[in-house]
Every structure is written in C-alpha cells, then in structure tokens.
Specification:
This protein is mainly β. Helix content is 7%, strand content 28%.
Length: 208
C-alpha cells in the first residue's frame, strides 16, 4: 500500500497466488464507493503543495485505534494437506498494516497472545500480530471469545489495513508457521467495517 501512497498507477500482482499483496488489493478496492474499480487517493495525499519551491510538507503522525472481539467461526474449510484422521485445531491471528516505510509505523496491542516475531517484528511493514487461544478438535464451530485492542501511529491513517488469518495447529498445542497450516483469511480497511456484531467472509488459500 505504500505504492498507492506514492501515486503508482500500475502494480504487478500475481493473480495465481492469493498472497498478502492480492489480499490487500482486494481490500483496497472493496473500500471504493463507486464500485467501478476506481479508488481516489486520501485527501491528505491530494492536497497541493502551498509552495513548490519551499520545504517539503511534513505529515504528522496520527493514532489509529482498533478494537475487536473474535467470538467464533463456523464450518472452517478443511485443507487438502490434512489427512482424514487429522483434526482441525483452529486459532485466529490478527494484525495491522500501514503505508509507512518499513519499521516507521508503531503498533501496540493488547489481548490474546503476542504472535509477533521474537524481535517484535513480523511481515510487511513490521505489523504487530496477536492471536487467540487454540480451540482443539473443533473446525465446525470453534469459540474463541478473545478481545483485542490494536493501536497504530502512522502518517497515513487512510491506508491502514487489518487482516484476520485462521490457522490450524498441527498438534493442537503449539502455534506458529512451522507448527500450523493456514485455513482461511480476510483483510479489510477499518473504514470499511461497521461497528457491532458482524460475520466476516473467509477466503481459503486459493482466494475462494
């Protein structure tokens, strides 16, 4: 999303792989109001320079807060990599992304368990990542009941994204990419989400 910030008109996306780039692209254009595939840059990035010869306009950091209760999931998709006797042991990770350059956004989180890297950094733009508890042997209607609070200091509050990813722990006890298989994911701009109780659509690793 830092490319949108800089006004890039065309970006190369691998449409055969439903990776984070495709997920954020989908979330960006789902936030459009005219449904024609056109999204206007945030107003703060469209304001003209008052003096082209003067110093570069400095953008102030703003605090974006996001609070969500992860209650439950229903009928999670079963990945092909699991054997017929293997159980689904789901948990949910939640993370925030910004359009700031790598390492320049500051994210703080509460609730659940910290799932960031050992150095406190994870993924694109070093987002903060937290997760729910593991719900053993229940891929049909797991209940998590975890509350998360994430806050992000960013120069680009209109280009903030939140991603939920549902994983299945292979042993039912430990989390992390080496011990889990991804079941489904959903990415959205907070400005696209309404307050209150909501079902979020989940997409499998193929984007279906």
């Amino acid at each position: 999303n830092k490319f949108w910030r800089r006004g890039v008109q065309m970006a190369a996306l691998n449409w055969q792989t439903y990776d984070i780039g495709m997920q954020m692209n989908q979330a960006m254009f789902a936030a459009g109001s005219d449904r024609t595939g056109y999204v206007l840059k945030p107003e703060s990035l469209r304001l003209p320079m008052s003096d082209l010869e003067g110093p570069k306009r400095k953008m102030e950091r703003r605090l974006v807060r996001f609070s969500v209760d992860v209650i439950s999931a229903q009928q999670l998709p079963r990945p092909r990599s699991l054997g017929p006797e293997d159980s689904i042991n789901p948990y949910v990770e939640i993370e925030m992304f910004s359009a700031d350059d790598r390492g320049q956004s500051f994210v703080f989180g509460e609730g659940g368990m910290d799932a960031s890297g050992r150095n406190g950094m994870s993924g694109i733009g070093y987002p903060h990542r937290r997760r729910t508890k593991i719900e053993p042997s229940n891929g049909y209607s797991p209940v998590f009941n975890d509350r998360f609070k994430l806050s992000l200091e960013t120069k680009y509050p209109d280009l903030v994204f939140v991603r939920w990813t549902v994983w299945s722990s292979l042993d039912g006890r430990s989390a992390g990419n080496n011990n889990s298989v991804q079941l489904a994911t959903f990415t959205a701009k907070p400005t696209s989400l309404s307050q209150g109780y909501r079902y979020l659509p989940l997409y499998d690793v193929s984007g279906d």
